Amino acid sequence: MVAAAQAQKPTSIPKSERTKARVLREALSLASRVGFSGLTFGTLAEQAGISKSGLFAHFDSKEDLQIQSLHVAEEMFVERVLRPALQQPRGVPRIRQLFSGWMDWIHSGTVPRGDILTAAAFEFDDAPDGPMRAAVVAGHGKMHDTIERLAKQAIEEGQFGKKAEPDQFAFEFLGIVHAHHHVRRLLRTDLHARRACAAFERLLATYTL
Amino acid sequence: MVAAAQAQKPTSIPKSERTKARVLREALSLASRVGFSGLTFGTLAEQAGISKSGLFAHFDSKEDLQIQSLHVAEEMFVERVLRPALQQPRGVPRIRQLFSGWMDWIHSGTVPRGDILTAAAFEFDDAPDGPMRAAVVAGHGKMHDTIERLAKQAIEEGQFGKKAEPDQFAFEFLGIVHAHHHVRRLLRTDLHARRACAAFERLLATYTL
Fold first, then answer.
1. Largest CB tally within 10 Å, which of A80, B53, B56, B191?
2. Within an 8 Å CB–CB cutoff, is residue B179 touching chain A?
């Protein structure tokens, strides 16, 4: 796949696709500042220096714009956090890499102001039903399922006890990430990263007992 | 104190105070639905059936209204969750009561739609600086300090190990509460309460080892 990607010339990407990719990057940058709810044709047109009618060519509706932007963030997360984790040996090494990659993702400023996926989950957890909320819930479900699968593999590898509950592990893993994201934004300091790491080590330790 | 409260006749409370108390209850009910940011003189006047000018008599500004409403919620939390915990013996019994009382507070519908204090913390964690954000941060700090103090007492009572870190314990305790609050709102189910309780038991177990 890497070879195929390298063989593809940049010029083979149609201009409209390149424009759309640029617009989606701007959309993500905007959403990271004002939330996905604040991402509209009007605000994005101003941010990206493109006409509203230009945006209508790429997105059916405000919800479509928000959902496509969320998916771009999810793809970035897969590329930068999940994929490197899955390249590790099954079980605990994958789990460790997922956690440390996630911490890096939060702190690196890849997306301004921290973890935009967690931010979206917090933003829409109490929103009325709608396509964007459904997309956020689906994203949360996929992440939960992924961590659950890694925990199952850790049991299969004999690293976690046979009675370990993968679903419980996923709940607690995500809880630590979310708690860190929240405290970091609330108190505007990275000092609590070591608290999150210590919590993760304690979690792992009780499962590998 | 209870005797003193009982001896006090309701009629001794001035009418303006009673009106204000009613208005603050309406304000809290409104904030639990639309967030504290959505709590303004205009929205509250409509909800409480009182004129805007009537509200000006009680509150200096929108921020003052939001902060006073937050403080009412904090007083309710102290009354219903914190005080019963502090009536338990020092150390682990207090910690257990605080956690189970908090779970009840989330599920009881005392305040519609769950834990309004956690909701406020999520709402303002990425807000611009301002008096309401400062009040939310102060509330978080007080709660963190309280849990830290309970953990210190558990060490003094010989229930937690001497090397236990009260600050770490407080971070993780709050993390479990916040994770539960968030997942409950996101997935709209109470099914994960048992995950939160199991996480709390695991947390306690590692500290009481």
1. A80
2. yes
Determine, yes or no, domain membership for B145. Answer: yes
CB B33, CB B55: distance < 8 Å: no
**ipTM score of the complex?**
0.85
Range of the domain at A140: 63-207
Contact A90/B at CB under 8 A: no
- pLDDT mean across residues, chain B: 90
Task: Tell me the two tokens of residue B190.
Answer: 């109470």
Residue spans of alpha helices (H) in chain B:
2-7, 15-34, 41-48, 52-56, 62-77, 83-86, 92-107, 116-124, 131-156, 166-187, 193-207
Query: Any idea of the CA torsion for A76, B127, A192, A196, to the nearest 10 degrees?
Result: -50
pLDDT tens string A135-154:
999 999 999 999 999 999 99
Tell whether A206 lies on the interface with B, counting CB pairs under 8 A.
yes
CATH number of the domain encompassing residue B121: 1.10.357.10
Q: Mean pLDDT of residues grouped by 10 in chain A (209 residues)?
A: 50 81 92 91 91 91 95 94 97 98 84 78 89 95 97 97 96 94 87 92 91
Please, are residues A36 and A66 in contact by the beta-carbon 8 Å criterion? yes
CB contact under 8 Å between A121 and B186, yes or no, is yes
A170 occurs within a structural domain: yes
Going by the DSSP 8-state scheme, the letter that residue B149 receives in this structure is H
Helices B92-107 and B166-187: crossing angle in degrees, nearest 10, is 20
Judge: A199–B172 Cβ closer than 8 Å, yes or no.
Answer: yes
Instruction: Tell me if B39 is assigned to some domain.
Output: no
Q: What is the pLDDT of residues A84-120, one digit of tens each?
A: 999 999 999 999 999 999 999 988 766 656 688 988 9
The pTM of this model reads: 0.88
Residue B53, both tokens: 């000018």
At A121, which amino acid appears? A
Q: Round to whole Å and give the CA distance between B110 and B107.
A: 8
